[in-house]
Amino acid sequence: MLKIGIVGCGLQAATIAGYTGVYGDDYEVTAVMDVNFESAKARIAEKQVKLNAGCRFYDDLNDFVAKEVELDGIIIGTPCNLHTEVACKVEQMKAPIYMEKPVAIHLDQLQKLYAAFKTSTVPVEVSLPMRLCPLTLEVKKIIDSGKIGNVEQIVGYEDTSGEVYFSTWFRDFEKTGGMFMQKAVHDLDYMFFLAGSNPKEVCAMRAQRVFGGDKPFDLSCDQCGEQEQCPESPYNHFHKLGMYSSVAEAAEYRYGRRMCRFSQGIKIDDINECIFKLENGAQIAHSQNFLVRNDACRRGARIYGYRGTIEMDFSGKIKVMSHLRYQTEEITVQSGPLSHYGGDKELVYDFLQTMKTGQRARTDLITGNGIYGTLSCLCARESADKREFINIKL
User: Fold this and answer.
1) Which of 253, 231, 249 is nearest to 241 (CA)?
2) Fewest CB atoms within 10 Å of the CB: 252, 331, 355, 375?
3) DSSP SS3 for 206
4) Which CATH class is domain 131-211+267-335+372-391?
5) DSSP code of 257?
6) SS3 call for 324
7) Over the stretch 80-123, which tens digit does the pLDDT of each residue have?
8) In angstroms, rounded to a whole number, what is the distance separating the alpha carbons of residues 262 and 162?
9) What is 2-128+345-357's CATH number?
10) What is the C-alpha to C-alpha distance for residues 75 and 19, in angstroms, rounded to an integer?
11) Same CATH fold assignment for domains 2-128+345-357 and 131-211+267-335+372-391
12) Half-sphere exposure of 310 (CA within 13 A, CB side)
């Protein structure tokens, strides 16, 4: 029986805990540390997490660390600004750690985290599922076969609705660190993986073009009198966008109160771009747009070599286009039912192996380059704010 503890039982932590039994392993969550017991219990129920009948709940991290001495693994799912503090604290428990990304939102946090774990025996798996999803692994096989030659350039893109980011706690920059940290961390990690090299230098831009405004920061849609005028209201999500079966259903937002996207104090960016030079000389460019929705949403990349180009789309489509022959190969990859394009299935597999054998995960913070996604995003944000190139180093 694997005994698992959770620190910060949000949606992602509960999701991973709920997946722990998918390979048939016998597990129980025996301890939870969260400042909101009712919310934690609701997430656990929603994700059908196997909870020990005597599961202990804590609202103080020090109590959790002092009393939970027999855990086989710990899942960290606190708000992002607390990831480093929690990980460094639970390191003394010597149980394998599963840690949500980004692992830090400031460089001094990341330096503290690296110092704590660079020589530690405690494995830390970082939640970077896109590197391990079936689509990315298939593209990696194609690259390794030599079909397109050496990877010289990757151009990635994510155009996605900003609804969850600008209408919930994610809009609080002090908790999330902005949209490089929240979204690009995934994409850059899988692109570094495909290129086979770590980042060396970055330049970037970010901006807030639409969201934000003059409304009170604590204004929620249910308190607003502009239901028919505002394009982001539950009324118009139903009436104009056709996203729900009724206004009442639109108002029942699964993440809690739907906060105003046009309020003061929103500091996160709704568009951004970054360009990296890698240690092997290849270049990566990535853009994000959080203004789109519906059919305008997309996520993927083009990978360029001398011999050919690969186009990958996270809908499960791959095109391999030869430069030296007039030939295009099309491949469809099934991701399966688990989240993050099937990548969470691989993350859970690695976490189980770590708990049972001590084998470190493929996205381990230290041995699996799990630190570079966060580091590259911190440097991209610094470049955008300073308007200059930034060398990527701890």
Assistant:
1) 231
2) 252
3) strand
4) alpha beta
5) S
6) coil
7) 999 999 999 999 999 999 999 999 999 999 999 999 999 999 99
8) 12
9) 3.40.50.720
10) 12
11) no
12) 32
One-letter amino acid at 170 equals F
Residue 247 CB-density burial (10 A; 0-12 exposed, 13-18 middle, 19+ buried): middle
pLDDT at 272: 98
**207 strand-pairing partners:** 271
Q: Which of 339, 202, 217 is nearest to 268 (CA)?
A: 217
d(CA 78, CA 101) in angstroms, rounded, equals 10
Taking the alpha carbons of 350, 19, 252, 293 in that order, is the dihedral positive or negative?
positive
Contact 355, 347 (CB under 8 A): no
To which residue do tokens 């990958």 refer? 312
Cα 248 to chain centroid, rounded: 30
Cβ-based neighbours of 235, under 8 Å, separated by 6 or more: 227, 228, 247, 250
Listed in order, strand segments (DSSP E) in 12-150 are: 27-33, 51-58, 73-76, 97-99, 124-126
Q: At what angle do helices 11-19 and 343-357 cross, to 10 degrees?
A: 70
Bridge partners, residue 100, by sequence: none
Closest CA to 105 of 123, 85, 127, 134: 85
pTM, entire model: 0.95
- Decide: helix, strand or coil at residue 241: coil
Structural domain spans, the chain: 2-128+345-357, 131-211+267-335+372-391, 223-251
- The structure tokens 């189980």 sit at 352
**Could you read off the pLDDT of 239-263 as tens digits, one per residue?**
988 888 998 888 777 677 889 999 9
CA-nearest of 110, 67, 106, 108 to 90 is 67
Say if CB 285 and CB 154 are below 8 A apart.
Answer: yes
- The alpha carbon of residue 162 and the mean position of all alpha carbons in its chain are separated, in whole angstroms, by 14
Q: With pLDDT > 90 as the criterion, what percentage of the chain qualifies?
A: 93
DSSP structure string for 184-201: IHHHHHHHHHHHTS-EEE
Give the DSSP H/E element, type plus range, for residue 88.
helix 83-90
Q: Which residues contact 254 (CB under 8 A, 6 or more apart)?
A: none
SS3 (DSSP) at 108: helix
